[in-house]
Amino acid sequence: MGEILVGTAGWTDRGLLRSGWYPAEINTPAKRLAYYAERFPLVEVDSTYYHPPAERTAELWVRRTPEHFTFNVKAFRLFTRHPTAPSALPRDLRWAAGTQRDNVYLDDLGPEVVEELWHRFRTALSPLHEAGKLGAVLFQFPPWFSNGPGNRRYLVECRDRAAPLPVCVEFRNHTWMEGPERERTLGFLNEYRLPYVVVDMPQGHGSSTPPVIASPADPGVVRLHGRSAKWNSRTKEERFGYKYSEAELAAWVPGLRELSASVSTTYVVLNNCYRDYAHVNAAQLVELLGRAESQR
Predict the structure, then answer these.
(1) Packing angle of the helix pair 111-130, 55-63 (nearest 10 deg)
(2) Using omega within 30 degrees of 0 as the cis cutoff, is the peptide bond preceding 164 cis?
(3) How many domains does the chain have?
(4) Residue 35's domain is classified under what CATH number?
(5) Which InterPro entries does the record associate with it (predicted)?
(6) What's the predicted TM-score (pTM) here?
(7) Residue 251 pLDDT exceeds 70
(8) Is the dihedral of CA 122, 125, 127, 130 positive or negative?
(9) Cα dist. 141→40, 82, 197, 290 in Å?
(10) pLDDT above 70 for 172
């Protein structure tokens, strides 16, 4: 059975800072990351989705965490076909967005600019990769990124452009895992060695995908988003304001163990990031997994 690492989506969220999870004296970025890393072996970085990462920041993350700590990092939103404000681009490349644009998409930019953005993204994360602290770069695609030949080709393009950084893909469109398309999608991901992100999320929405336990490629990745009844809310607190019960977390333990039996490492990220919900649930899940292991 492979290793299972459990962590949360972030360690500096404002709601978390207000929740009291950190003691009062843990009041700087360096202290918070060190405190977090004493309690969990994995964290997911969300800020890189909104702005390209900086190499200097990645170097600090390496220095401020234990030897075997792992970072999963979200891909910059342009690369996952999300609309992006020109101000999110590096200052010297903003000219490529043109004028009077509220948002820019990847296809709006010239090929040289796109290549430069990818180059900078890879370079910025190289300290983590070289230190053995990069788990996977998460490509979380939007609800309009549906199953089809063009989008399947783009998945492979993302894998190749990100190389040598490891990647994983998460879908927010039901067509990828619907009916017979499920096996086709998993077969495609297996053929191209693209790790699939298993999700727990509210069902019944166009963006919903079922919690299919699958590992078409190494590593295994699981993200638990909560089960809020207000999943379509534009308010983060309503969308992710869900605390799992111990019984709900326990129900995931057999599936996580099944997944870990087929891969070297499984990353489990609690993304119900409202106050300290994710951190409390992550600690509970670690205990439940430990209990199950001791009963083998």
Answers:
(1) 10
(2) yes
(3) 1
(4) 3.20.20.410
(5) DUF72, UPF0759_sf
(6) 0.95
(7) yes
(8) negative
(9) 27, 8, 11, 33
(10) yes
